[in-house]
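Justification of resources, computational component.

The compute hours requested in this renewal are based largely on the per-chain cost of generating structure records like the one below. Each record pairs the submitted sequence with a full structure-token output. That output is archived, and it is also reused by downstream analysis tasks.
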Amino acid sequence: MNNQFVLMPFARNNDSNLIVGIEEVRRGNQCNCRCICCNTLVTARQADVNQWHFAHRTDDCGTSSECMFAPTTAIALILREQLPNLRSFHLDEFDFEDVDWIINAKVGGALLDAYASSGNGIASIAIEIPFANSKDANLEKWLSLVDIVLKIDTHAIATSLYSSGGKAKLYSPEQLFDLLLDNWNDWVYRFETTRHQIEKSEKITKSNSNKYEPVPIQEVVFQPSMAFSDACACCGVNRGSLGKGLLLCTGCVNKQVGSRFNNLTEMVRYYRK
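The structure output for this chain reads:
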């Protein structure tokens, strides 16, 4: 989905460092939270009339315009936090029991968003959980390293939850993850190379040779990510996706806002000089 304006329903708690929903915190500055996108302190607005949401807690109104809250990124962060709670599941021909997930795992020279192996070590799985402006991962490379590669369509989830207009339904991070499990077949895709699809098709055709209608190959459809060319003005490596002009990457912002800079606006102004 496009980065349309969405009131912030989530923030990161300063004590637990976990993402929380607006309904889980105390009103106003007592929420003790910060923005998950730019790390600026936020306040919890829980008025009776308007939709409850978090707002940047700063007198500098520029921060709100510099930080464009992306629901897709919020969803990706939440799913990364919640996924380790999924300890047992069955996927196709594999049973996964007592699973320990590793987020941002380095395997065979590739950085996997989420990685796990079955308790007996027979099968392994990697899941792509893209942010709003993520580059397409090399899933063919991933498939050479693990048995199963999945992609969660975070764009589709954001569109489903926040594109209808009016007041959006509020969810806690746990409820959002349960929603993913309930809509697994709509929002999660298994990646297969053309060779694997052909092999599967040949097996299906052979096993159904006496039937009148052939079974088609199941296609995996991915939503393309945005192309990018602007490097972060701070590290010069990652994509600059925060601040007008896409100047700074999320990693640099999270490291420096709150320690070196009071808010995102100060950091953007510094790197624009």
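The longest strand covers residues 110-117. Residues 36 and 74 are 7 Å apart (CA to CA).
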